[in-house]
Amino acid sequence: MKRLWLLLLVCVLLLSACSGETPCQTELFAMDTYMTIRVWDGEEALLSECAQLIYALEAQLSVTRSDSELSALNAQGQAELSSGTLSLLAQAICYSEKTEGAFDPTVYPLVESWGFPSGQAKIPDDETLAELLSSVGTAHIHCSDGEVLLDEGTRLDFGAIAKGYAAQCVAEYLAEQGVRAAMINLGGNVQTLGEKPDGTAWLVGIADPEEPSQAVATLRFTGSMALVTSGSYQRYLELDGQRYHHILDPKTGKPADSGLLSVTVLAQDGVLADAYSTALFVMGLEDGVAFWRQEQSFEAVFITQGGSIFATQGASALLSGCDFTEICA
Ligand code: ADP
Ligand code: MG
């Protein structure tokens, strides 16, 4: 009898569904980030499937795990890639071309020269940087029929788009499973799906770069959206009292010094939002605004080193809780 009850309990747990106004939630640590996934409807088991999906993407795309598909390509200089990795690489090359190299998936030798993967800060000298820069740029990637060849010294890093891609994959998977409302929060990468059952808007905070555990402003909107923030406060190394942050300018090989503390990009697609948040951080306010006017595929909120906030027209309509300057089209 006891066994029967236990069996029934297990069945109920397995079939338990998320419904109503309180979401089901799972938390995980992957891609060096604390992540939360919330689902308002659908089977609770979907949450662990989403977590498995993220772990699998990490195993495929990580540049620091020696057994990943990306590491095999970097080590051998050539590889036949899976269709998922190949499609992400094609998107990376496209966004790199659109941003004129401000986002560049070949920055890994530079990232390594500053000691980011090991966490041991180093300051590469100008000669070292000049040499490494000669193998940076998407012209060093050659693709044909699923086979990718890298020029000598060139190595790929998907660190600036992997979380955006993972959030996009999870949102697509949940939508395929019939989920109508979900929020995927992968650190600075947030993706919403659909509308909450109680009809209230999604609220996503923009971290205060000086006090990242607090929000400096809130974005309020309904429907599906990707919101990605790149900021100098997110990851950095310290050496002799000096901070070196993790977003590099692929033209100089040094941490980007464009006068910004953070950029938040809002777009329909998670990979685009992630690639562009990194690129806009490198470009700075003026070039970033020019890029926004030209592209029209995203909205953005910029926080400058002086603490001023600038929001593009579409983002202005969603922003509250702070003083800001609206940038018109
Ligand atoms: P986070 O990883 O904190 O979300 P980003 O999305 O801006 O921040 O990505 C930064 C990561 O991407 C770095 O840790 C590095 O691995 C890589 N990277 C640094 N600079 C660039 C760049 N200009 N273009 C592409 N990737 C970059
Ligand atoms: Mg990014």
Q: What's the SSE blueprint?
A:
Blueprint: H1 2-15, E1 17-18, E2 24-30, E3 33-39, E4 42-43, H2 45-61, H3 69-76, E5 78-80, H4 83-98, H5 108-113, H6 126-133, E6 141-144, E7 147-150, H7 162-176, E8 181-186, E9 189-194, E10 202-208, E11 211-221, E12 225-231, E13 236-239, E14 242-245, E15 260-267, H8 270-283, H9 285-295, E16 299-304, E17 309-312, H10 313-316, E18 319-320, E19 325-327
Parallel strand pairs: 17-19
Antiparallel strand pairs: 1-4, 2-3, 3-8, 5-7, 6-7, 8-9, 9-12, 10-11, 11-18, 12-15, 13-14, 15-16, 16-17
Bound molecules: adenosine-5'-diphosphate and magnesium ion.
Which parts are unreliable, with pLDDT below 50 for 5 consecutive residues or more? 1-15
- The strand line-up of the biggest sheet is 2-3-8-9-12-15-16-17-19
Report Rg: 21 Å
Number of strands: 19
Shape: globular
The helicity comes to: 25-40%
Major sheet characteristics: 9 strands, mixed
Distance between the termini: 70 Å
Structural class category: alpha+beta
> Ions, cofactors, ligands: which are bound?
adenosine-5'-diphosphate, magnesium ion
Q: What do the pLDDT scores average to? A: 93
What's the helix count? 10
Beta percentage is: 25-35%
Q: Write the H/E string, N to C.
A: HEEEEHHEHHHEEHEEEEEEEEHHEEHEE
